């Protein structure tokens, strides 16, 4: 690889980290951290959830880059559409996910054994939920992440004809600070729970806290982006 | 148990109302073409710069986006547009504040003579949606437009503001130098 391409990779990585640490996606980052780190009883599951969260984010950035490079869709159209509609949809989605985590709603599992097993899997919030969360959160562009991705990363990807590698590096970098922080919390909580010999209690509370955070962030998104009764500049 | 049931019902009702309100408000939103023009723009004309989005200065022979004109205005005028989304993030507000402050402090004479104008527009409002395509805007952006006799001569998307926002000195220099260059052109 040329020195120029290496420089582009470093730029893509740094742009991704800047996206992750900018104040604008703060609310969704808090939700992601609490979701990944809730597996107090099993840090390995937290790591796997974090990896799938990273994969979900990367898939979105790669897919959008591929669509923009390979079609007539313009970056402004895609960017404005995602910023306008995804943040509006995110509120109700997060509230439903929060209710799910708190056991307020469950999937119907009556019927076949398969249906029961699937229902139980989803109810247990398998690690695959991390992938879905990564996809949904990556699609919810805020102004700063849109500027860094559409005006920073995409021109770079076009210049180097790299619609997969550079967006993937960007995606991994956007998830890295969140995942590292979440896993540190999970490991610390696990150690503390073992010390107090009460892993199941810690796990139950971690799940409740995550559910409540999802509810609060969801209600905030609804009030800010759908009803427009609270400022959208809190993040 | 009862509290949990009440909480579930309240939250589900909130979600249903939110989704219903969202659908109704999006359905009733006026289309861009039907929307009235707002301050600083005239209706009916939505021409863009025409050329490809370059990320740098673009010059065009095409008629640019509509600009305010009246008999008392100078023939040569620079308009500093700050376009934003409905979502106003902390960094977006800071960029807006720093840019306006820099221009008003460093180029006060141009504001007084009417050669420089500052306009803030929400590009999600139907009347202003065309600006996003005209200037290739992907998010909140500062755009300087150089006009002569009410027609756009050239424009620049000041996209480096996002990289310079934490370096106030460099930010001011970047914004003021480009505006100054247009004023002297």
Q: Characteristics of this structure?
A:
heterodimer, A: 235 residues, mainly alpha, globular, B: 185 residues, alpha+beta, five-stranded mixed sheet, 6 helices, 5 strands
Could you give the count of β-strands of chain A?
A: 0
Q: pLDDT average of chain A, as an integer?
A: 85
Summarize the helix and strand pattern of chain A as letters. Answer: HHHHHHHHH
Q: Regions of chain B with pLDDT < 50 over 5+ consecutive residues? A: 32-64
Strand pairing plus helix content of chain B: what structural class? alpha+beta
Please tell me how large the radius of gyration of chain A is.
Answer: 19 Å
Mean model confidence by pLDDT of chain B: 80
Helix content of chain A: over 70%
C-alpha Rg of chain B (nearest Å): 20 Å
Outline type of chain A: globular
What string, H for helix and E for strand, traces the elements of chain B in order?
A: HEEHHEHEEHH
Major sheet of chain A: none
What does this structure look like?
The complex is a heterodimer of chains A (235) and B (185). Chain A is mostly helical. Chain A is built from nine helices and no strands. In chain A, helix 3 packs across helix 7 (143-159). The relative contact order of chain A is 0.23. Chain B has 185 residues and is of the alpha+beta class. Chain B is built from six helices and five strands. In chain B, strands 1-5-4-2-3 form a five-stranded mixed β-sheet. Chain B is elongated and about 70 Å long. Residues 32-64 of chain B have low confidence and may be disordered. Classes of the chains: A mainly alpha (235), B alpha+beta (185). At the A-B interface, helix 4, helix 7 and helix 9 of A face helix 1 and helix 2 of B.
């Amino acid at each position: 690889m040329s020195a120029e391409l290496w420089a582009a990779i470093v730029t893509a990585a740094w742009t991704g980290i800047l996206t992750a640490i900018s104040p604008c996606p703060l609310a969704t980052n808090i939700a992601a951290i609490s979701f990944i780190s809730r597996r107090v009883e099993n840090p390995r599951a937290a790591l796997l959830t974090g990896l799938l969260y990273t994969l979900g984010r990367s898939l979105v950035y790669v897919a959008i880059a591929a669509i923009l490079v390979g079609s007539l869709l313009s970056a402004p159209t895609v960017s404005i559409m995602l910023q306008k509609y995804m943040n509006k949809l995110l509120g109700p989605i997060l509230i439903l996910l929060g209710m799910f985590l708190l056991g307020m709603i469950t999937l119907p599992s009556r019927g076949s054994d398969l249906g029961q097993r699937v229902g139980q899997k989803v109810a247990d919030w398998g690690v695959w939920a991390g992938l879905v969360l990564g996809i949904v959160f990556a699609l919810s562009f805020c102004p700063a992440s849109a500027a860094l991705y559409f005006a920073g990363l995409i021109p770079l990807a076009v210049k180097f004809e790299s619609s997969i590698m550079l967006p993937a590096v960007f995606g991994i970098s956007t998830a890295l600070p969140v995942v590292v922080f979440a896993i540190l919390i999970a490991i610390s909580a696990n150690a503390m729970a073992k010390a107090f010999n009460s892993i199941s209690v810690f796990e139950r509370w971690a799940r409740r806290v995550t559910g409540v955070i999802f509810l609060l962030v969801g209600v905030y998104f609804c009030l800010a982006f759908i009803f427009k009764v609270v400022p959208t500049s809190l993040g | 148990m009862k509290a949990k049931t009440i909480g579930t019902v309240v939250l589900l009702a909130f979600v249903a109302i939110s989704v219903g309100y969202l659908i109704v408000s999006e359905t009733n939103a006026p289309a861009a073409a039907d929307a009235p023009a707002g301050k600083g723009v005239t209706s009916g004309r939505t021409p863009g710069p025409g050329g490809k989005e370059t990320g740098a200065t673009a010059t065009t022979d095409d008629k640019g986006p509509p600009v305010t004109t009246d008999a008392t205005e100078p023939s040569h005028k620079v308009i500093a547009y700050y376009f934003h989304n409905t979502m106003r993030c902390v960094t977006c507000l800071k960029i807006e504040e720093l840019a306006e402050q820099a221009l008003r402090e460093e180029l006060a004479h141009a504001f007084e003579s009417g050669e420089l104008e500052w306009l803030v527009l929400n590009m999600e409002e139907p009347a202003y949606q065309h600006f996003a395509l005209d200037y290739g805007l992907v998010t909140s952006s500062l755009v300087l437009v150089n006009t002569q006799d009410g027609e756009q001569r050239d424009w620049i998307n000041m996209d480096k503001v996002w990289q310079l926002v934490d370096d106030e000195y460099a930010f001011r220099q970047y914004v003021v130098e480009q505006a100054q260059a247009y004023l002297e052109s």
